[in-house]
Write a structure and sequence with these properties.
Organism: Pluvianellus socialis
Biased composition (Basic and acidic residues): 628-637
Main location: other
Membrane topology: Single-pass type I membrane protein
Transmembrane segments: 571-592
CATH topology of the largest domain: Jelly Rolls
Helix content: 25-40%
Length: 692
Amino acid sequence: DWNKRIEYKPGSGSIPLFPSIHLETCDGPVSSIHTTIELQNNYIGKGCDRETYSEKSLQKLCGASSGAIDLLPSPSATTNWTAGLLMDNNDMIFKFDGKQGAKIPDGIVPKNLTDQFTISLWMKHGPSPGLRAEKETILCNSDKTEMNRHHYALYVHNCRLVFLLRKDFDQADTFRPAEFHWKLDQICDKEWHYYVVNVEFPVVTLYMDGTTYEPYLVTNDWPIHPSHIAMQLTVGACWQGGEVTKPRFAQYFHGSLASLTIRPGKIESQKVISCLQACKEGLDINSLESLGQGIKYHFNPSQSVLVMEGDDIENINQALRKVSYINSRQFPTAGVRRLKVSSKVQCFGEDVCISIPDIDAYVMVFQANEPKITISGMDHFARPAAQFERGVILLPDIRIVSTVTKMEHPVDSKEHDRGLFKPVVLEEMLHNLDFCDILVIGTELDPEQECLELDHVELQGKHLDATNSTAGYSIYGVDSMHNYEQVLRQIRYRNWYTSATFDRKFRVKCSELNGRYTSNEFNLEVNILHSSNSNTMDHVNHMIVQPQFLQSVHQPEGSISAVHNSVVPSVATIVIIICVSILIFIITLGVYRIRTAHQHSSGDTEGSKENEMDWDDSALTITVNPMEKYEKPHQTEEESEEEDIEDEEEDDTTSAESDESEEEEEEEEEAEVIVQKGNKQNATRQEQLEWD
């Protein structure tokens, strides 16, 4: 009764692998049962699912001593010596194919490492090709020119790990231990292992996956003669500066390296080493106290293998049901983890009486919901130049919030059958951050006149550290978003020579899991107000930043200056008054011209009306004297038509006047008809005309 596929959702804690499993022997008596459960996860990350924070952040989280120097950092503007190496971005793994090496710039690692220092690294290495393989250099410090002396080095030779340390004559003048050899099968098993070399001269100790190993061979040598030749520190190969026509790399490494660090002046404790290499996933047993009597069990250091032994079948069945898988990472690496269960049964008086087939199953770890990290706050402000000389807080109200979107299963069974899922944005999700950078946009800071500052008291009690440069300020370490907010709110920008600077732009960006999840890029602009324009911007600045007028109530001098600033008119106010005055003048001029045009139009209308009255008089003349010739009224008609044409050509004639002229033309036509009929009806003409 076991399932081949076991599903694991992030944040589920410990889940049983085989809650109903049992062994059936058909009532055959057995004397002992030996069962091995193996979690095969060596292909996940560096041997198992570990935290993928940077080495600096992990060391801070595990309580390691400060001062570790990362020799294989991610490529950036300040750490560009790894830019040409083959790299797996997800896990910060660098792959060396026997053709590449990296030079560490001078000044990164001090020349004198003292008698105590620590070298730590992750390494994945296979058998070397050939019968007599060359040395494969992991880390080497040799002469840069003229000679080919190796001062200290860590390398692999014929599946042996060798550490070389040559003292100078000024430090020792006798035959001293110089080479330390370890022979381990894990060096060439093509699996990831964590190595720590603790040097406490003349004693050197190796920790491999948290277990201590003493060197099987130590060879002595004379100290190196002093010289003024510069040294070159390299990774992945050794620099050969002498004995060749042209200096070059030699003794290349074949394999993968990660998290290579060196810590001068201090050695690391076994507790910290165990923390740094600990797996975050493995096998577990729920409620050990109820495991049952007569059950023996044993875990390997990484908890990937569990061995159980007992003499009672029922007790073994109960114990197997309590075996579980656990992954303590908030954002685990998704994928398959294979499981293999093998058992052996012994009967009374026999070695092996029953053959039990192996169980092959797997755990399917689901992808965690991706968080969305958002940085918000005041993105622009201005201050007088005098305040920047003392220092101005850049991010007084910065806020870092993370949300996550989940697919919620529908309640309705019909919707479930159709596969409908509704995305729901959850409330704030709490998780850690591992670094926040404040980058300078544009030209870098001039250390002669400006800088970013942070009181390191703010870092006390937190798993945080900080580095400062002309390119910006970096805060790193695995800690909560709240602690990051508190520290970011205390960073100040100082500029004690502000006459040449008017503004500065910054960009804030935060990360979780060494860049696996990144926030938005929050841009901030800061304006420096000089004496010429400080009064102009005072009012706007107070609205944007803080009510300084309220503060000036308790400071009489400040209140006087505030009143003075409010009385002095600004340039913007004067410009507005001038614009309003010009607008009033234009409106007045327009009204005047409209009224003038209206009066002129009224005069033209009265003139046209007088012409109409004259025309009416001529028409009456035709009516009263019917005995005149036909030509006279015809002439009068032409005159009236000319007058009509003139009236029509007048610009100011209205449509009403045009209608009146048409009516008058009709009256003339009627008069003509009356005149033509006058010879026939003289007795009635007078009556008709009077009626008209």
